[in-house]
Inverse folding.
């Protein structure tokens, strides 16, 4: 392990990061891995509920929906940051990246909500799931991450 920590789990100042060696990445039932699975399933379920609500709330404009989502995101996020004693600003060296990420998040949410309002819900959601392919290609090109034959085949 690193500095006497387990090879499977490393704790940082405020977050729990998984560092699972390849031999442990089978269907292990570790509590951390199980929580990750439950969190991802819950996230997918809530994402679906959110998409349904956007379609259901047709009387609201796209930016009204983005506004209210942002209000609740801000309130929830600030509550967690205050509880954890963390600054919402973050480290000074990463501000430009955070600003770019925020602008991209706003653009995504606006385009996503617009698509849901203008298209059949199932079509909009299926198109959204091209995101992992786009992310994989961008990671290979911009970050130099590995992109092999299996990645390319899986993207098709």
């Amino acid at each position: 392990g690193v500095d006497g920590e387990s090879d499977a789990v490393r704790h940082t100042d405020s977050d729990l990061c998984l560092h699972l060696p390849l031999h442990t990445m089978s269907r292990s039932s570790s509590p951390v891995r199980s929580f990750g699975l439950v969190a991802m399933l819950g996230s997918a379920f809530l994402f679906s509920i959110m998409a349904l609500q956007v379609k259901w709330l047709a009387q609201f404009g796209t930016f009204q929906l983005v506004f209210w989502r942002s209000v609740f995101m801000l309130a929830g996020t600030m509550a967690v940051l205050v509880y954890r004693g963390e600054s919402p600003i973050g480290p000074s060296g990463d501000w430009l990246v955070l600003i770019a990420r925020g602008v991209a998040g706003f653009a995504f949410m606006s385009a996503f909500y617009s698509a849901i309002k203008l298209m059949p819900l199932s079509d909009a959601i299926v198109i959204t799931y091209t995101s992992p392919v786009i992310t994989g290609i961008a990671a290979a090109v911009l970050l130099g991450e590995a992109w092999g034959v299996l990645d390319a085949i899986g993207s098709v």
User: Anything to note?
Assistant: Residues 77 and 88 are 9 Å apart (CA to CA). The first helix runs from residue 31 to 56. The two ends are 38 Å apart (CA to CA).
